[in-house]
Amino acid sequence: CHDQLAFDEILATTPAAVDSMGAQRCRVVRHHADPRIDGSFYDPQGPVVYCGGPSYVAPFREEIEHACRVLGRRFVCDTRRGRLSWRSLRGAALMLHPRFAPTDTELNRECKPQVKLENAAAATLPVLCSRHACVTSIRSSLVFFEDHRSMAEAISVALASPRLRSPFPFRHYLA
């Protein structure tokens, strides 16, 4: 690509994306947290929340809903378009960040921007996510779906896990 396009610099959304590109002159420009989200969003008694594209959660939605019922938690699945689903994080106890088949592709595993992680950090929420390089190269101490025997166990462990902090700020993204 460099020979064809002769670009001066290439930007990546995660350290994993840099690794996948094999580019020598590559900078990571992480996705920023939405500046409208803050630490007041977290409520330890609140629901388990997923906000994003419906295709990412669809294969396990029934299992997630069942696990939440078993744990006495409400599940909020907000798939609104127009970038409004972040509002569902207000009052949440846990944010889900899944990427299951068929959306579990190489591009998504390595290079997908991690706006969900940054928004969770801005809201100071714990996260339950898929173990992908793009996730773990940004934040390493997370709870992963596949580390547990059941969805209820994974959600329970994630609810008790440390909350994310230190979101990547918008001003750094712009710089």
Overview of the structural elements:
By secondary structure, the chain is an alpha/beta fold. The protein contains nine helices and seven strands. The chain has helices spanning 2-5, 15-21, 54-57, 61-70, 106-111, 115-122, 133-136, 151-159, 170-174, and strands spanning 10-12, 26-28, 48-51, 75-78, 94-97, 127-129, 143-144. It has a five-stranded parallel sheet, with helices on both faces. It has a two-stranded parallel ribbon with strand order 1-2. The protein starts with a helix and ends with a helix.
Features:
9 helices; 33% helix; 175 residues; single chain; alpha/beta; 7 strands; globular; two-stranded parallel sheet; 5-stranded parallel β-sheet
